[in-house]
Write a structure and sequence with these properties.
The complex is a heterodimer of chains A (370) and B (67). Chain A is α/β, with parallel strands linked by helices. Chain A is 31% helix and 18% strand. Chain A has a domain of 174 residues: Rossmann fold. A three-stranded antiparallel β-sheet of chain B has the order 1-3-2, covered by helices on one side. The mean pLDDT of chain B is 92. Classes of the chains: A alpha/beta (370), B alpha+beta (67).
Chain lengths: 370, 67
Protein backbone atom coordinates (compact mmCIF):
# COMPACT_ATOMS: atom_id res chain seq x y z
CA UNK A 1 0.00 0.00 0.00
CA UNK A 2 1.44 3.36 -0.96
CA UNK A 3 1.26 6.33 1.33
CA UNK A 4 -0.79 9.25 0.07
CA UNK A 5 1.12 12.52 -0.02
CA UNK A 6 0.02 15.31 2.33
CA UNK A 7 -2.35 17.92 0.93
CA UNK A 8 -1.05 21.31 2.10
CA UNK A 9 -4.15 23.12 3.34
CA UNK A 10 -4.59 26.66 4.54
CA UNK A 11 -6.99 27.30 7.42
CA UNK A 12 -8.07 30.91 7.86
CA UNK A 13 -10.28 32.15 10.68
CA UNK A 14 -9.79 35.92 10.67
CA UNK A 15 -8.95 37.66 13.91
CA UNK A 16 -11.43 39.91 15.64
CA UNK A 17 -14.63 39.06 13.78
CA UNK A 18 -16.27 36.99 16.51
CA UNK A 19 -16.42 33.64 14.73
CA UNK A 20 -18.34 31.00 16.60
CA UNK A 21 -15.36 28.70 16.11
CA UNK A 22 -12.05 30.53 16.45
CA UNK A 23 -13.32 33.85 17.74
CA UNK A 24 -12.22 33.18 21.31
CA UNK A 25 -9.18 31.74 23.09
CA UNK A 26 -7.74 29.13 20.78
CA UNK A 27 -11.13 27.51 20.42
CA UNK A 28 -10.35 26.56 16.83
CA UNK A 29 -7.41 24.39 17.93
CA UNK A 30 -9.54 21.22 17.82
CA UNK A 31 -10.64 22.09 14.27
CA UNK A 32 -7.02 22.78 13.32
CA UNK A 33 -5.92 19.43 14.76
CA UNK A 34 -8.65 17.67 12.82
CA UNK A 35 -7.78 19.37 9.54
CA UNK A 36 -4.08 18.72 10.19
CA UNK A 37 -4.89 15.05 10.62
CA UNK A 38 -6.87 15.00 7.38
CA UNK A 39 -4.32 16.94 5.32
CA UNK A 40 -1.08 16.04 7.15
CA UNK A 41 0.03 19.58 6.38
CA UNK A 42 -1.98 22.46 7.73
CA UNK A 43 -0.85 26.07 7.48
CA UNK A 44 -2.64 28.38 9.85
CA UNK A 45 -2.17 31.54 11.85
CA UNK A 46 -1.82 32.62 15.50
CA UNK A 47 -5.51 33.48 15.97
CA UNK A 48 -6.28 29.82 15.41
CA UNK A 49 -3.47 28.35 17.50
CA UNK A 50 -3.04 30.76 20.42
CA UNK A 51 -5.21 29.72 23.34
CA UNK A 52 -3.93 32.13 25.98
CA UNK A 53 -2.38 29.67 28.41
CA UNK A 54 -3.35 26.72 26.20
CA UNK A 55 -1.62 25.50 23.05
CA UNK A 56 -1.11 22.36 21.00
CA UNK A 57 2.15 21.74 19.18
CA UNK A 58 1.62 19.55 16.13
CA UNK A 59 4.32 18.67 13.64
CA UNK A 60 1.70 18.75 10.85
CA UNK A 61 0.80 22.39 11.57
CA UNK A 62 2.78 25.35 10.26
CA UNK A 63 2.25 28.49 12.39
CA UNK A 64 2.31 31.45 10.03
CA UNK A 65 1.29 34.99 10.91
CA UNK A 66 -1.41 36.66 8.80
CA UNK A 67 0.71 39.12 6.82
CA UNK A 68 3.11 36.30 5.95
CA UNK A 69 0.14 34.20 4.88
CA UNK A 70 -0.90 36.93 2.46
CA UNK A 71 2.60 36.99 0.99
CA UNK A 72 2.74 33.20 0.86
CA UNK A 73 -0.56 32.80 -0.95
CA UNK A 74 0.40 35.57 -3.38
CA UNK A 75 3.58 33.65 -4.22
CA UNK A 76 5.87 36.34 -2.81
CA UNK A 77 7.20 34.24 0.07
CA UNK A 78 7.89 30.54 0.53
CA UNK A 79 7.79 28.69 3.85
CA UNK A 80 10.72 26.68 5.11
CA UNK A 81 9.85 24.34 7.98
CA UNK A 82 12.44 24.39 10.77
CA UNK A 83 13.26 22.30 13.82
CA UNK A 84 13.47 25.27 16.15
CA UNK A 85 13.43 29.05 16.04
CA UNK A 86 15.38 31.32 18.33
CA UNK A 87 12.54 33.45 19.63
CA UNK A 88 13.48 36.98 20.64
CA UNK A 89 11.24 38.54 23.27
CA UNK A 90 10.21 42.16 22.78
CA UNK A 91 8.66 43.77 25.85
CA UNK A 92 6.82 47.08 25.84
CA UNK A 93 8.23 49.72 28.19
CA UNK A 94 4.62 50.32 29.20
CA UNK A 95 4.61 47.09 31.24
CA UNK A 96 4.60 47.56 35.01
CA UNK A 97 7.48 45.86 36.85
CA UNK A 98 5.39 42.95 38.15
CA UNK A 99 3.69 42.34 34.81
CA UNK A 100 7.04 42.40 33.05
CA UNK A 101 8.45 39.93 35.57
CA UNK A 102 5.49 37.60 35.03
CA UNK A 103 6.25 37.51 31.31
CA UNK A 104 9.95 36.92 31.85
CA UNK A 105 9.08 34.04 34.18
CA UNK A 106 6.85 32.50 31.51
CA UNK A 107 9.73 32.73 29.03
CA UNK A 108 12.08 31.15 31.59
CA UNK A 109 9.50 28.40 32.15
CA UNK A 110 9.25 27.70 28.42
CA UNK A 111 13.03 27.24 28.30
CA UNK A 112 13.21 25.12 31.45
CA UNK A 113 10.10 22.98 30.95
CA UNK A 114 9.55 22.88 27.19
CA UNK A 115 13.08 23.17 25.85
CA UNK A 116 12.42 26.24 23.74
CA UNK A 117 15.23 28.52 22.58
CA UNK A 118 14.24 31.99 23.74
CA UNK A 119 16.24 35.18 23.63
CA UNK A 120 17.54 37.77 23.43
CA UNK A 121 15.12 39.94 25.38
CA UNK A 122 14.65 43.65 24.82
CA UNK A 123 12.46 46.36 26.29
CA UNK A 124 11.41 49.23 24.05
CA UNK A 125 12.92 52.65 24.79
CA UNK A 126 9.41 54.09 25.37
CA UNK A 127 5.88 52.77 25.78
CA UNK A 128 4.47 51.76 22.39
CA UNK A 129 0.93 52.96 23.09
CA UNK A 130 -1.99 50.83 21.93
CA UNK A 131 -5.38 52.18 20.86
CA UNK A 132 -8.28 49.78 20.44
CA UNK A 133 -10.87 50.49 17.75
CA UNK A 134 -13.99 48.85 16.46
CA UNK A 135 -15.04 49.15 12.83
CA UNK A 136 -18.56 49.87 11.64
CA UNK A 137 -18.79 46.18 10.79
CA UNK A 138 -18.23 45.24 14.44
CA UNK A 139 -14.73 43.88 13.75
CA UNK A 140 -11.97 44.77 16.16
CA UNK A 141 -9.11 46.93 14.94
CA UNK A 142 -6.61 49.29 16.48
CA UNK A 143 -3.54 51.36 16.18
CA UNK A 144 0.02 51.67 17.45
CA UNK A 145 0.99 55.14 18.65
CA UNK A 146 4.75 54.69 18.24
CA UNK A 147 5.45 52.20 15.46
CA UNK A 148 9.03 53.48 15.09
CA UNK A 149 9.79 52.56 18.69
CA UNK A 150 8.42 49.07 18.15
CA UNK A 151 10.37 48.64 14.93
CA UNK A 152 13.69 49.80 16.40
CA UNK A 153 13.47 47.24 19.20
CA UNK A 154 12.54 44.45 16.77
CA UNK A 155 15.45 45.36 14.48
CA UNK A 156 17.85 45.09 17.46
CA UNK A 157 16.50 41.63 18.30
CA UNK A 158 16.93 40.44 14.74
CA UNK A 159 20.44 41.86 14.60
CA UNK A 160 21.25 40.07 17.86
CA UNK A 161 20.30 36.71 16.40
CA UNK A 162 16.59 36.25 16.96
CA UNK A 163 15.00 34.30 14.12
CA UNK A 164 11.44 34.96 15.31
CA UNK A 165 9.94 37.64 17.53
CA UNK A 166 7.34 37.43 20.29
CA UNK A 167 5.93 40.85 21.17
CA UNK A 168 4.29 41.72 24.48
CA UNK A 169 2.61 45.10 24.71
CA UNK A 170 0.65 46.70 27.51
CA UNK A 171 -3.00 46.86 26.53
CA UNK A 172 -5.42 49.32 28.12
CA UNK A 173 -7.39 47.80 31.02
CA UNK A 174 -10.22 50.28 30.63
CA UNK A 175 -11.46 48.97 27.28
CA UNK A 176 -15.20 48.62 26.78
CA UNK A 177 -16.44 46.73 29.84
CA UNK A 178 -19.65 45.57 28.18
CA UNK A 179 -17.73 44.28 25.16
CA UNK A 180 -15.36 42.36 27.41
CA UNK A 181 -18.25 40.90 29.39
CA UNK A 182 -20.03 39.77 26.21
CA UNK A 183 -16.82 38.23 24.90
CA UNK A 184 -16.17 36.30 28.10
CA UNK A 185 -19.72 34.98 27.97
CA UNK A 186 -19.37 33.83 24.36
CA UNK A 187 -21.43 36.53 22.68
CA UNK A 188 -18.94 39.13 21.56
CA UNK A 189 -15.94 40.03 19.50
CA UNK A 190 -12.45 39.84 21.00
CA UNK A 191 -11.95 43.59 21.16
CA UNK A 192 -8.17 43.40 21.59
CA UNK A 193 -7.32 40.91 18.87
CA UNK A 194 -7.57 43.23 15.85
CA UNK A 195 -4.70 45.43 16.97
CA UNK A 196 -2.64 42.36 17.87
CA UNK A 197 -2.80 41.41 14.21
CA UNK A 198 -1.82 44.96 13.24
CA UNK A 199 1.30 44.72 15.43
CA UNK A 200 2.47 41.41 14.00
CA UNK A 201 1.58 42.44 10.42
CA UNK A 202 3.67 45.57 10.87
CA UNK A 203 6.80 43.74 12.02
CA UNK A 204 6.53 41.00 9.43
CA UNK A 205 6.11 43.61 6.69
CA UNK A 206 9.21 45.47 7.87
CA UNK A 207 11.48 42.57 8.84
CA UNK A 208 10.13 39.44 7.12
CA UNK A 209 10.56 37.33 10.25
CA UNK A 210 8.01 35.12 12.04
CA UNK A 211 6.24 37.23 14.62
CA UNK A 212 3.27 37.00 16.97
CA UNK A 213 1.84 39.06 19.77
CA UNK A 214 0.65 38.50 23.32
CA UNK A 215 -1.28 41.23 25.13
CA UNK A 216 -0.34 42.15 28.69
CA UNK A 217 -3.34 42.91 30.85
CA UNK A 218 -4.17 43.06 34.51
CA UNK A 219 -6.15 39.98 35.62
CA UNK A 220 -9.94 40.31 35.41
CA UNK A 221 -12.26 39.45 38.29
CA UNK A 222 -13.74 35.97 38.12
CA UNK A 223 -16.83 35.54 35.91
CA UNK A 224 -19.06 32.69 37.01
CA UNK A 225 -20.75 32.57 33.61
CA UNK A 226 -17.56 32.28 31.59
CA UNK A 227 -17.91 30.59 28.19
CA UNK A 228 -15.56 27.57 27.88
CA UNK A 229 -14.20 29.02 24.64
CA UNK A 230 -12.74 31.97 26.56
CA UNK A 231 -11.37 29.89 29.44
CA UNK A 232 -7.87 29.60 28.02
CA UNK A 233 -7.34 33.26 28.87
CA UNK A 234 -8.36 32.88 32.51
CA UNK A 235 -5.83 30.28 33.57
CA UNK A 236 -2.65 32.23 34.05
CA UNK A 237 -1.11 35.66 34.32
CA UNK A 238 -0.02 35.93 30.68
CA UNK A 239 -0.95 34.78 27.18
CA UNK A 240 2.69 34.54 26.17
CA UNK A 241 3.22 30.77 26.44
CA UNK A 242 1.07 29.87 23.43
CA UNK A 243 2.85 32.51 21.35
CA UNK A 244 6.29 31.19 22.29
CA UNK A 245 5.31 27.60 21.55
CA UNK A 246 3.83 28.58 18.18
CA UNK A 247 6.80 30.68 17.14
CA UNK A 248 9.32 28.08 18.27
CA UNK A 249 8.40 25.94 15.24
CA UNK A 250 7.14 28.63 12.86
CA UNK A 251 8.62 28.19 9.37
CA UNK A 252 11.21 30.59 8.03
CA UNK A 253 9.87 33.12 5.53
CA UNK A 254 11.92 32.92 2.35
CA UNK A 255 11.56 35.78 -0.08
CA UNK A 256 10.94 34.57 -3.61
CA UNK A 257 13.86 36.62 -4.88
CA UNK A 258 16.23 34.72 -2.58
CA UNK A 259 15.81 31.46 -4.46
CA UNK A 260 15.87 32.71 -7.99
CA UNK A 261 19.31 31.31 -8.66
CA UNK A 262 19.51 27.64 -9.60
CA UNK A 263 21.99 27.05 -6.80
CA UNK A 264 19.68 28.41 -4.12
CA UNK A 265 16.71 26.60 -5.57
CA UNK A 266 18.67 23.34 -5.38
CA UNK A 267 19.77 24.02 -1.78
CA UNK A 268 16.22 24.59 -0.65
CA UNK A 269 15.02 21.65 -2.71
CA UNK A 270 11.77 20.04 -1.70
CA UNK A 271 11.89 21.42 1.83
CA UNK A 272 10.08 24.62 0.81
CA UNK A 273 6.33 25.02 0.88
CA UNK A 274 5.14 27.14 -2.03
CA UNK A 275 1.81 28.67 -2.91
CA UNK A 276 1.58 26.22 -5.79
CA UNK A 277 1.65 23.34 -3.28
CA UNK A 278 -1.63 24.43 -1.71
CA UNK A 279 -4.40 21.91 -2.24
CA UNK A 280 -7.20 23.73 -0.42
CA UNK A 281 -8.08 26.76 1.66
CA UNK A 282 -10.67 26.56 4.42
CA UNK A 283 -12.41 29.80 5.35
CA UNK A 284 -15.61 30.93 7.13
CA UNK A 285 -18.59 31.66 4.87
CA UNK A 286 -18.94 35.27 6.02
CA UNK A 287 -15.26 36.15 5.76
CA UNK A 288 -14.51 35.83 2.06
CA UNK A 289 -13.27 39.39 1.63
CA UNK A 290 -9.76 38.99 2.98
CA UNK A 291 -6.58 39.43 0.98
CA UNK A 292 -5.48 35.79 1.29
CA UNK A 293 -8.87 34.45 0.18
CA UNK A 294 -8.91 36.71 -2.86
CA UNK A 295 -5.41 35.51 -3.78
CA UNK A 296 -6.55 31.89 -3.48
CA UNK A 297 -9.50 32.59 -5.76
CA UNK A 298 -7.18 34.21 -8.31
CA UNK A 299 -5.03 31.08 -8.24
CA UNK A 300 -7.90 28.58 -8.53
CA UNK A 301 -7.02 26.96 -5.21
CA UNK A 302 -10.01 24.86 -4.08
CA UNK A 303 -12.00 26.89 -1.58
CA UNK A 304 -13.81 25.11 1.25
CA UNK A 305 -16.34 27.55 2.66
CA UNK A 306 -17.47 26.61 6.18
CA UNK A 307 -20.52 27.84 8.09
CA UNK A 308 -18.92 29.62 11.04
CA UNK A 309 -20.97 32.61 12.15
CA UNK A 310 -19.18 35.87 12.89
CA UNK A 311 -20.03 39.55 12.62
CA UNK A 312 -19.28 39.75 8.89
CA UNK A 313 -21.55 38.70 6.05
CA UNK A 314 -19.16 38.78 3.13
CA UNK A 315 -20.58 35.55 1.79
CA UNK A 316 -20.02 33.50 -1.34
CA UNK A 317 -23.22 34.93 -2.83
CA UNK A 318 -22.29 38.53 -2.10
CA UNK A 319 -18.80 37.99 -3.47
CA UNK A 320 -20.27 36.43 -6.63
CA UNK A 321 -18.19 33.33 -5.99
CA UNK A 322 -21.09 31.06 -6.84
CA UNK A 323 -21.37 32.89 -10.20
CA UNK A 324 -17.94 31.52 -11.11
CA UNK A 325 -19.58 28.19 -11.83
CA UNK A 326 -18.47 26.91 -15.17
CA UNK A 327 -15.27 28.94 -15.24
CA UNK A 328 -11.97 27.16 -15.48
CA UNK A 329 -11.04 25.09 -12.43
CA UNK A 330 -13.88 26.36 -10.35
CA UNK A 331 -13.57 24.55 -7.04
CA UNK A 332 -15.84 26.03 -4.43
CA UNK A 333 -17.06 23.54 -1.85
CA UNK A 334 -19.42 24.24 1.02
CA UNK A 335 -19.24 22.59 4.45
CA UNK A 336 -21.63 22.88 7.36
CA UNK A 337 -18.81 22.56 9.90
CA UNK A 338 -15.15 21.64 10.26
CA UNK A 339 -15.98 17.93 10.53
CA UNK A 340 -17.41 18.11 7.02
CA UNK A 341 -14.46 20.23 5.87
CA UNK A 342 -12.12 17.49 7.10
CA UNK A 343 -14.07 15.00 4.99
CA UNK A 344 -13.72 17.21 1.92
CA UNK A 345 -9.97 17.53 2.50
CA UNK A 346 -9.68 13.78 2.87
CA UNK A 347 -11.56 13.31 -0.40
CA UNK A 348 -9.39 15.85 -2.21
CA UNK A 349 -6.24 14.32 -0.79
CA UNK A 350 -7.16 10.77 -1.77
CA UNK A 351 -8.65 11.67 -5.15
CA UNK A 352 -12.25 10.80 -4.37
CA UNK A 353 -14.67 12.71 -6.58
CA UNK A 354 -16.76 14.88 -4.24
CA UNK A 355 -19.80 14.48 -6.55
CA UNK A 356 -19.78 10.76 -5.94
CA UNK A 357 -20.29 11.38 -2.21
CA UNK A 358 -23.44 13.49 -2.62
CA UNK A 359 -26.95 12.54 -3.66
CA UNK A 360 -28.53 12.70 -6.14
CA UNK A 361 -25.85 11.98 -8.71
CA UNK A 362 -26.39 13.29 -12.23
CA UNK A 363 -25.88 10.99 -15.20
CA UNK A 364 -22.88 11.70 -17.37
CA UNK A 365 -23.58 13.83 -20.42
CA UNK A 366 -21.89 13.86 -23.75
CA UNK A 367 -20.33 17.14 -24.76
CA UNK A 368 -22.75 17.67 -27.62
CA UNK A 369 -25.72 17.43 -25.23
CA UNK A 370 -24.67 20.51 -23.24
CA UNK B 1 5.79 56.95 10.34
CA UNK B 2 2.20 56.61 11.51
CA UNK B 3 -0.48 53.97 11.29
CA UNK B 4 -4.02 55.01 10.51
CA UNK B 5 -7.29 53.09 10.60
CA UNK B 6 -9.62 54.01 7.73
CA UNK B 7 -13.09 52.89 6.65
CA UNK B 8 -14.13 53.52 3.07
CA UNK B 9 -16.63 52.43 0.43
CA UNK B 10 -15.68 51.52 -3.12
CA UNK B 11 -17.78 50.85 -6.19
CA UNK B 12 -17.51 47.31 -7.52
CA UNK B 13 -18.56 47.60 -11.16
CA UNK B 14 -20.22 44.59 -12.78
CA UNK B 15 -17.50 44.30 -15.38
CA UNK B 16 -14.77 43.91 -12.76
CA UNK B 17 -14.30 40.19 -12.17
CA UNK B 18 -13.57 38.66 -8.80
CA UNK B 19 -10.16 37.71 -10.14
CA UNK B 20 -9.28 41.40 -10.54
CA UNK B 21 -10.83 42.63 -7.32
CA UNK B 22 -7.79 42.35 -5.02
CA UNK B 23 -5.53 44.45 -7.22
CA UNK B 24 -8.32 46.97 -7.77
CA UNK B 25 -8.76 47.38 -4.01
CA UNK B 26 -5.01 47.61 -3.39
CA UNK B 27 -4.66 50.32 -6.02
CA UNK B 28 -7.41 52.34 -4.30
CA UNK B 29 -5.92 51.82 -0.84
CA UNK B 30 -2.51 53.02 -2.02
CA UNK B 31 -4.03 56.47 -2.33
CA UNK B 32 -4.25 56.57 1.47
CA UNK B 33 -0.91 54.96 2.37
CA UNK B 34 0.74 51.54 2.37
CA UNK B 35 -1.96 48.96 3.11
CA UNK B 36 -0.95 46.92 6.15
CA UNK B 37 -4.10 44.98 7.04
CA UNK B 38 -7.43 45.21 5.28
CA UNK B 39 -10.61 43.32 4.55
CA UNK B 40 -13.88 43.74 2.76
CA UNK B 41 -16.37 43.99 5.60
CA UNK B 42 -19.62 44.30 3.68
CA UNK B 43 -20.99 44.12 0.17
CA UNK B 44 -24.24 45.90 -0.68
CA UNK B 45 -26.11 46.26 -3.94
CA UNK B 46 -26.87 49.62 -5.50
CA UNK B 47 -29.67 48.75 -7.90
CA UNK B 48 -29.89 52.26 -9.37
CA UNK B 49 -26.29 52.29 -10.49
CA UNK B 50 -26.28 48.53 -11.18
CA UNK B 51 -23.12 48.14 -9.14
CA UNK B 52 -22.17 46.76 -5.78
CA UNK B 53 -20.63 48.82 -3.02
CA UNK B 54 -17.87 47.22 -0.99
CA UNK B 55 -16.94 48.53 2.43
CA UNK B 56 -13.30 48.20 3.38
CA UNK B 57 -11.69 48.51 6.79
CA UNK B 58 -7.95 49.04 6.61
CA UNK B 59 -4.88 50.09 8.56
CA UNK B 60 -2.38 51.92 6.38
CA UNK B 61 1.19 53.00 7.03
CA UNK B 62 1.74 56.67 6.39
CA UNK B 63 5.36 57.69 6.04
CA UNK B 64 6.18 61.24 7.04
CA UNK B 65 7.79 62.00 3.70
CA UNK B 66 4.45 61.28 1.99
CA UNK B 67 3.24 64.59 3.39
Amino acid sequence: MTKTEPLPTLLIIPTGIGCSVGGYAGDAIPAARLLAGASECLITHPNVMNGGSLYWPDSCIQYVEGYSLNLFVAGEVFLKPVRQQKVGLLLDAGLEADLKKRHLQVADGCVASLGLDIGPVITTERAIGINLKKGLSGSSWGNIEKPDVLLRAAEKLKKAGATAIAVVTRFPDDSDELETKLYRRGNGVDIISGVEAVISHFLVKKLLIPCAHAPALAPLPIDYDLDPRASGEEIGYTFLQSVLVGLSRAPDLINKSAIKTKENAFLHGKSLLRDTDLGAVVVPEGALGGEAVLSCIERFIPLIVVSNQGVLDVSSIKMRIDCLSGEKNNNVLHAENYLEAAGLITALRHGVNIKSLRRPIDCLKELNEE
Amino acid sequence: MNLEFIELDLDWPCELSLFELKNYILSKLMEYGEPLRWAITSVTANSEKKIQIISIEVVVIINQDMG
